[in-house]
Design a protein that fits this description.
single chain; alpha/beta; Rossmann fold; UDP-N-acetylmuramoyl-L-alanine:D-glutamate ligase; 2 domains; about 40% helix; about 15% strand; elongated; Nnr; lyase; metal-binding
């Protein structure tokens, strides 16, 4: 799905109003109804305590007023608090007038802010996506008060004070929500680590914004879900053979790090590659043959690390990096590979560290090479980032400059394409933050890059999504704390099968 900017989100509201011939307050009622339903599914009317709804002077506050009225009508104990302001939006004013007289509603006094008991449910409807400056004065005091309370804060659309597609000014005040309930599409801010303390767990509720406007909106940022990937992984032909899906070469492992070679190899095999040859140091021969017997072991003359590049002619794609080490001879192998390879490349781990230490090698990257750094490895390839937004800018620029596909691993792993488009992955869980998880991703991506039916973009998107989905399936069995990289490998097949059965768009 597309990630719209704050301006595009407002335009989507207006396009919906115009296309349906409705009034703005009707769309507000629709959004608030979705939020009220979400709340009522999780909170019983007789649950002890009042629901406190804090409303700002704009349409975000209008949403809060509608929710207050709907919850009150459903039998919930609700109390509304209004932020003092010289003027209010028309829809706020209308819904303020619609509040039942018996529903408690008062203006906030900064000298005597309401006492909030622990675990009280608080709805933050102070400010939404239109915020353009840091909160000050009474608004800042109210937010600081909410953050000090041990209440269950639910933010409407975005936490108040949070910019949706730009970095926060230093020392700005932002609501620290436990949940953020947004409408129709996620916001870029939800996907960045620096905003996690404010956003909490986020959910998107559909409210029927105009599909034609969203479809035609020009964006350079996407959130990858099953709908976006529908039809991208083709069914296997009835008369397939092992040559149909390509022969991959993986260069991996060094003494003490041969487990990385095993994990990447097994992931590549489970990822559907037709044939796999693994170049390992001589010390890895027995280990690989026992751990991944379906792969062909091609040993290096050296015992402890890879020192020579084999003949590349048989291979449809090549991966290098997991556990390979950073010896000078291995660096030379990487350089030779970059100079000679004329098939898709996947670079990870120590291959990236070698690139970072020898940046002149970056000029040798063939077009459409796929790199999979974590943030520290990416920093070695570029520069330290000021914040998460700056890191995304560096990621876009790196992919454009190097004409490559670059994966920035983490929660909501980001993929940058050669044209600067960003894709954020929707699958995965914190249990995957474990040694070897990246090696599994490398092997899976190598398998998909070997499949000549897939474009570089589709291979990367499918690999990221299936890797995260396999981790989710594994965590259902092991729990997040008990998850290890080998568990992810076991669920690659089921994750890919689900993608294969998704209906293609006509």
């Amino acid at each position: 799905m597309k990630i719209l900017s704050a301006d595009q989100t407002r335009q989507a509201d207006q396009a919906t109003i115009q296309a349906e011939g409705i009034r703005s307050e009707e769309l507000m009622e629709r959004a608030a109804t979705a939020l009220s339903s979400w709340l009522m599914e999780r909170v019983e009317p007789d649950e002890p305590g009042e629901i406190h709804i804090f409303c700002g002077p704009g349409n975000n506050g209008g949403d809060g007023l509608v929710v207050a009225r709907q919850l009150h009508e459903a039998g919930y104990a609700v109390r509304v608090w209004l932020l003092p302001a010289p003027k209010h939006s028309p829809d706020f004013t209308l819904n303020r007038q619609r509040l039942p007289e018996e529903l408690p509603c008062a203006e906030l006094n900064p000298q005597k802010l309401p006492r909030l008991l622990p675990h009280t449910i608080v709805l933050d409807a102070l400010f939404g996506t239109g915020l353009r400056r840091p909160l000050t004065d009474v608004a800042a005091s109210v937010v600081q008060h909410l953050n000090k309370a041990q209440a269950r804060v639910i933010a409407v659309d975005v936490p108040s004070g949070l910019y949706t597609d730009a970095p926060q000014p230093a020392d700005s005040v932002v609501v620290q929500a436990r949940y953020t309930i947004s409408f129709e599409l996620p916001k870029l801010a939800f996907l960045l680590p620096q905003n996690a303390p404010f956003v909490g767990q986020w959910h998107v509720l559909p409210i029927g914004l105009n599909e034609e406007f969203i479809h035609t909106s020009l964006v350079d940022t996407y959130y990858v879900d099953a709908v976006l990937l529908a039809g991208r992984l083709p069914q296997r032909p009835q008369f397939s053979h092992k040559g149909t899906f390509g022969h991959a070469l993986l260069l991996a492992g060094s003494r003490g790090k041969l487990g990385a070679a095993v994990l990447a190899s097994r992931a590549c095999l489970h990822g559907g590659v037709g044939l796999l040859t693994v170049r390992v140091p001589a010390a890895g021969y027995d280990i690989l043959q026992i751990s991944a017997p379906e792969a062909m072991a091609l040993t290096d003359p050296a015992t402890d690390f890879v020192t020579e590049l084999p003949d590349l002619k048989p291979y449809a794609a090549i991966g290098i990096g997991p556990g390979i080490g950073q010896e000078a001879a291995t660096r030379d192998v990487l350089e030779q590979l970059l100079r000679e390879a004329d098939v898709p490349l996947v670079l990870d781990a120590d291959a990236l560290n070698l690139l970072g230490a020898n940046r002149e090698l970056l000029d040798l990257l063939p077009p459409d090479t796929l790199l999979t750094p974590h943030p520290k490895e990416f920093e070695r390839l570029t520069e330290p980032a000021r914040d998460d937004y700056h890191r995304l800018e560096l990621l876009r620029n790196f992919a454009r400059q190097r004409r490559c596909y670059c994966v920035l691993k983490g929660a909501y792993t980001a993929l940058a394409t050669p044209d600067g488009t960003l894709y954020f992955n929707s699958t995965g869980n914190p249990g995957m933050a474990t040694g070897g998880s990246g090696d599994v991703l490398t092997g899976l991506l190598l398998a998909l890059r070997t499949d000549q039916r897939l474009s570089p973009l589709d291979a990367a998107l499918l690999g990221l999504y299936a890797h995260g989905r396999a981790g989710d399936l594994a965590a259902e069995e092991t729990g997040q704390a008990g998850l290890v990289a080998g568990d992810i490998v076991r669920y690659i097949g089921p994750a890919l099968q689900k993608l294969t059965t998704l209906p293609a768009r006509l």
